[in-house]
Amino acid sequence: MESESGWEAQQAAAAKRISAALQKGRGTGAVRILLQALERNELPSNGELWDRLRARLGASASKKLIAALASMPCFYCKSGVQRCEHCDGDGCHSDASPCGYCLGFGIASCDFCNGSGRATYTVVPSSLRMHVLEHRMQQALKEANQLLKAAIPTAAGRTIKIVRRDLAGRLFQIDRVMGVLENAVTSAREASRSRKELRKFAARVIRVARRVALKLDARMRQVLKQLVQVERSAVATTKSTAVKPPVLARIDLLHSIRKRRGFHGCTFQHPFLKLGSIRR
Ligand SMILES: [Zn+2]
Ligand SMILES: [Zn+2]
Ligand SMILES: [Zn+2]
Known about the structure:
Shape: elongated
Bound molecules: zinc ion
Distance between the termini: 61 Å
Helix content: 55-70%
Strand order of the largest sheet: 1-2
């Protein structure tokens, strides 16, 4: 058994290593050191961790550590997307009908991180979790504002291939932010269940997240509308004999999903944001 002062020395040493990594701008390294130190019981894993770290690292470095934890990527996917498991990435089924889950894109939001592209909250030490959540929320709100301001890509002066790619990219960008918001809602709600003092905080997170998500949801439907228009005009300019029934089926699918409440049943659904139940 380590003596009390021995443990203090271990904590100081771990904090020093974390601090050194942060000073060199190595956020990922600092996170790795933190998680290793926790695993080896060199730092308290209970609610004291945040206070201890802040006391040892100082306000600015502990903020940096939170930022590094917040940006930790999901180890399973790339930027929140993975190959669609429903169609094996083909975008359609063996009968050539479009995949209703990925809407023919062939990619879908990652099941592991809920499309957020970030490490799940379970990876974050519990006493730092709400700080990381707050940081991720702020980032998500910034990104949401940018996405709401950005013009929807149009066909003007571009090839169909590029417009298609840009519109799909925009949809999955919006979906990623929705994933971050949804994870924040779930995690804040869960934390407030065991810690009553977090109830107000959680209520605010849920309120803000849903309000922004509602706007993003509307934006997503506008982008889908644009995609339908682009695909329709592509069909219109193609010789009618060359237009294949699956292409038309996909356009119908995109058109119908645009009107579906909460994007239920497809990759863009985020049931925990409960957008279907908010009055528009
Ligand atoms: Zn399917
Ligand atoms: Zn699919
Ligand atoms: Zn992921």
